[in-house]
Amino acid sequence: MQKVLRRTALAKRQAARRAANRAGMEKTEQRRLRMNNDGIVGATIQADIRAERLARREDWIMGPLAPRRDVGEDKDLYGTVSTRRLQGVDVAEEKRKDWCLKVNDRVVVVADGHRDRGRIGQVREIREKAQEAMVTGLNRVDIRIPEYMLMTESDKRPIRTMEAPLPLSALRLVYPLPHPETGELRDVVMKELKRGRTRKGKPVRYIAGVSPRIFVPSPDKEVVEHEDHDIDTLRIEVEEKTFVPSLLRPPMPRTIIDELRNKYSKFRDRHDEDFIARKVKEDEDAAASKRTAELMRTPLKETLRREREAKRALGKPQLSEDMLARIGEIMAAKRAPGQIEQAVPV
Asked: With 220 labelled, which of 7, 157, 169, 290 sits at a CA distance of 20 to 30 A?
C-alpha cells in the first residue's frame, strides 16, 4: 500500500510541476503577445501624431499655400482613425489604479482640453487592464474600417462613427445627492471614491474624505426579459425537493468516485476497502518473504557467522608489558626536548 501512496504522491508532484511550467509558458506567451500588440498600437498612435505635427507645421509656414489633404485617395478617409486606436494599450499591473467605477455609472469628462469636457454619459464597458472605459455618446470618432473586415460584414460602410475609449483618470462619477440646506437632489461630481465593506461583509463604495461616510450604491443592472417556451422546465419542478439528506446514508452513492475519477488512475488517493485490504496483504507477504530470506543460511552467511564466533571466542585483545614499553618509547621519541625536560620531575 505504501508503494501505491508513493506513486500517487509522485504523480501529483509531477503533474503540479507540469502545470506550473505550462502556466509559466502561457504567461510568457501572453506577455509577448501583449507587448507586440502594445507596440503596434503605440506605433500607430505615434505615426498619427507625427503626421499631424507635420501637417500643422506646413499649415503654419505655408499659410494659404498649404496643400489640401482631403483629396486623392484620402478624400473620404481624411480625419478618420484606425481601428487599432480602439484597442488601447495595457497598463502595467503595478501602475493600475482602482477608480471604483462600474458599468451603467453616470460619469463626466474632466480632462483638460478635451472636446467633451463637462459632458455626462453612461459607462458602457470598462477595460481594467488598459485603464479605459467606453462611455455612451462621448468621445465619438470616425473609424475607417479595413477592407478585410468589410468582406465579412453586412454593413459595407467604410467609415463609421463609434465611441473611442476614454482613460479612467479623465472620468468622475456623477451621483445625485440632496442639498444640505434645501434638500433638493442635484448631480454631484465625486472627486474620489474608495471601496469598503459593511459589517456583514458586503462590498460598498463611499466618498473619500467625507465624514460621516456617504455610500454610493451600485448602478441598477439591466433587466433581461426571457421569453418562455413550451420546452422550458417549470420553476415548480426545479424547486421540488427530490432528495432529503440523512445521516444513515451518504448523499451520493459510493461509486460516484469511479465516475469522477478513473478507478485505475495514478492520481487516485481514495480507494475501496477490498483494494486496501489486498494491498496490505501484499505488503505483509513481501515483509514475510524478506524475513524468510534473512533467515535462510547461505555459504557466505555461514562463513561470516563462523568468523564472528571465532573473534568472539578470542575475547577482547589485551596489551602486554612489552607492547606498553614499546608504545612509551615511540611516544618519548616523538616529543620535543623541551617537553621531555618539563616532563622530568625536579
From this structure: 169
